Inverse folding.
């Protein structure tokens, strides 16, 4: 009888070892592999990557710093800004657009030279997130204090109009085909609007999420990921506006990026973690890793050409001090 029991134990162990690896969640292997110290102790917000010039733009309160991603060196600054929040890039016109929350304006700069070419005053309060929509060739600022969005013609730098949102907008995403989506943080809802007509098309709750901040989209499958401050990400089908599922994430989420090649969602959080979620199919999602970064690293950018992730916060400088800088994550 003992021999028989031993036989069954061996068979069980062997069968476990030869099970397909994809039966269990597998980490993609991302980890912090480098850092770029910038200096200063001011506030920061969103990051953006210029994939043509291979530069990382980092917002830094009164300026935007440009880092060469090939060398990791600071190569320029756009300064004299007023409470900078985000950067949108319109490659078609060779321009970048910076939202200034303190003076309700958008600074326009030349992508190649980093020289300021225009400053657009908007009739709104608190422009924060800013997104370029390639379908309409318009830039949209999302104005938290006036609960609306402002549309700007990326070619002429002229204000086109306003979308009333009846809620405080956070980050937004375009489907590149005539619809845009934005989190309404105070209402715990997502608003869908037409970037051409500037009309709101629909609104739906992010429940079980609360206070949505980060937003990313799977363009191919029409899936929207809304990162919420109650430590979950809610996942929606944009065609039906129905909840697919929700996943646990870290505390203080403020940015998300989606890798369309590997079908991976990354959620960066203030608590010093990035939650990694695998989309196995449009209805199958799994948390596969929690990547440790540094406390305060709540925003990030993803370089599709290299697969690298960049996030910013105050970093140890080796002398028992902390210095503002960029963390580089690779796998």
């Amino acid at each position: 009888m003992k021999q028989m029991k031993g036989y069954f134990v061996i068979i069980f162990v062997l069968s476990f070892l030869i099970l397909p690896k994809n039966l269990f969640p597998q980490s993609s292997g991302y980890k912090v592999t480098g850092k770029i110290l910038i200096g200063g102790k001011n506030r920061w917000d969103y990051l953006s990557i210029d994939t043509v010039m291979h530069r990382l733009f980092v917002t830094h309160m009164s300026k935007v710093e440009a880092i060469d991603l090939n060398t990791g060196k600071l190569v320029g600054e756009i300064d004299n800004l007023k409470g900078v929040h985000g950067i949108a890039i319109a490659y078609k016109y060779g321009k970048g657009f910076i939202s200034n929350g303190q003076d309700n304006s958008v600074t326009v700069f030349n992508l190649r030279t980093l020289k300021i070419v225009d400053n657009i005053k908007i009739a709104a309060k608190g422009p924060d997130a800013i997104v370029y929509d390639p379908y309409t060739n318009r830039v949209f600022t999302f104005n938290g204090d006036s609960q609306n969005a402002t549309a700007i013609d990326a070619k002429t730098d002229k204000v086109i109009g306003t979308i009333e949102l009846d809620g405080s907008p956070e980050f937004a995403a375009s489907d590149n085909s005539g619809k845009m989506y934005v989190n309404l943080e105070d209402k715990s809802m997502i608003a869908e609007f037409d970037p051409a007509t500037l009309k709101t098309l629909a609104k739906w709750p992010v429940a079980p999420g609360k206070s949505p901040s980060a937003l990313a989209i799977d363009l191919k499958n029409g899936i929207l990921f809304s990162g919420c401050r109650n430590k979950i990400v809610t996942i929606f089908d944009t065609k039906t506006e129905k909840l697919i599922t929700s996943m646990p994430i870290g505390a203080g989420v403020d940015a998300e990026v989606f890798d369309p090649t590997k079908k991976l969602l990354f959620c960066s959080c203030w608590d010093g973690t990035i939650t990694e979620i695998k989309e196995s199919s449009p209805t199958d999602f799994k948390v596969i890793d929690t990547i440790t970064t540094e406390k305060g690293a709540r925003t990030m950018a993803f370089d599709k050409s290299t697969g690298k992730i960049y996030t910013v916060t105050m970093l140890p400088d080796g002398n028992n001090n902390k210095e503002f800088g960029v963390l580089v994550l690779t796998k």
About this structure: The chain is about 5% helix and 55% strand. The longest strand covers residues 273-281. The first helix runs from residue 2 to 17. The mean pLDDT is 92.
